[in-house]
Amino acid sequence: MEDAQQLRPTTDEILAECPRFRILVVGRSGVGKSSLINHAFGVDLATVSSKRRGKSTIEKEITSTHNDRFVLHDSMGFEPGNTKTFETAKKFLESRGEKVPLKERVHAIWLCIQVPHADSRVFETGDEQFLELAATVKVPVVVVFTQFDTLYSRMEEELTDEEMELPDEDIQQLCSQRADAEFKKICVQPLERMDSTLRHARTSGLGENTKPDRPALTALITTTQDLLDGLGGESRDTVWLVSAMAQRASARAKINSSIEIGMKKYWRGIASSTKFSGLKLEKCLETIHSDIITAWNFSDPEGLLRDKPFLDQVQTVTQLVVPGTTNARSWFTNVERLQTLMGIGTSIASVTHPILFPVVAAIGLSVMFVKWIANVYTQTPEVLRLFMGYIVDLTLVLDQLFLVIVARSPPRVLTTEDINVALEKFKNSVMENVHREIREYANKATFSDIIRSNRAEEKIAELINNHRAKRAEPES
User: Fold this and answer.
1) What sections of the protein cross the membrane (predicted)?
2) Cα dihedral across residues 73, 252, 42, 9: positive or negative
3) C-beta neighbour count of 272 within 10 angstroms
4) In the predicted model, is pLDDT for residue 246 greater than 70?
5) What are phi and psi of 474, to 5 degrees?
6) Quick one: CA dihedral 265, 269, 271, 275, positive or negative?
7) What is the per-residue pLDDT across 13-50, written as a single tens digit (0 to 9) for each?
8) Does the pTM of the predicted model rise above 0.85?
9) d(Cα 34, Cα 206) in Å, to the nearest integer?
10) CA distance 98 to 139
11) How many Å apart are CA 17 and CA 11, to the nearest integer?
12) Is 151 exposed, middle or buried (CB count within 10 Å of its CB: 0-12, 13-18, 19+)?
């Protein structure tokens, strides 16, 4: 049926073409490949059957029940004088190139090399040949220098007695500067001499008892996605989006993919969308909800983010921005207490009002709102505020949820408590300002002007980017 086709989530189409991001990780034993994969994709490879790891060949697909959006191929590094491993990798890459369906191709390679000592050779001949091969078969490759923290530790060991007397903050800065300079000398410069176009990243703190370097992991994901973005072609969007779904190190990548997925069908021209014509608002919300949840790809075996209780929680928040000022009283009692959060107060405070937030949970879903979203889509300011509010509210709640769980060691399985904490963080931080800005946008011009400009989706992206949770990660 036509309606069923219109309601099909965009992510269904994407994942039908390429359900998993396929990555080849190359490196010697002990370099930190497993830990890198665990933290980058939020899994625990130690739980994978020994038949599929350890002695497995490069052709074997390594997957995890904790994240069904990626598949790993593992290759040993290239020891001097051993050509067998290289020839095996060459044969494998050539069999996974452009001649096979997109879902069967290798989409990216991480060549993992441990940060060497100053007098050690960083690249073996096999590494150089492999990088040339990757360029020939047109697979994006990132050289990942692992265990950078050992280099920092060496800088600490080499401090003079006089330097040891410096304040701790100064010592840290001094060691960081020296470690960065040494890294450039012994890792980056040899790489650039070999091929100045090659991209690299570095990681540290991925051992069992060490804290991961989150900004470094985020930078690795960003570098990988930049290379995928540069491929171009019809398959670019699909691989780029699936890679963003698969990774669990960068919230920025999740937000970017969520926005791009939304723009592909539902957000662009949302004020005058023909996609929703003849469809009930509640069905439209369910489809948008499904796309955004799929883009974030949390480990959610119980389906908590897709269950009705969570949908009701998000709708309880979003309903506050929907009614116009004149009919808000018919939707809610105690409008005076809610008006700041609804964005209709005569004066908007510069700080949040924690005493008001329990009211949001207490009111639940308004009977009027439930009846209203059972109606068919129409081009009205209320409908525009509904879609803008729901998209921004849900995305920013998931952004908070990412922040709640990312500090844990993999795997990071969601709980109801995690979701409730994320909701409260959103309500107590930016919800008031988000709803106010949505109303201000809708009031700047007549609704017909908004429809003609067809730019509401840009405001949605702006709101998400301006109000996302602050964290220590590089911005792309």
Assistant:
1) 355-374, 386-407
2) negative
3) 17
4) yes
5) -65, 145
6) negative
7) 999 999 999 999 999 888 999 999 999 999 998 765 44
8) yes
9) 9
10) 10
11) 10
12) buried
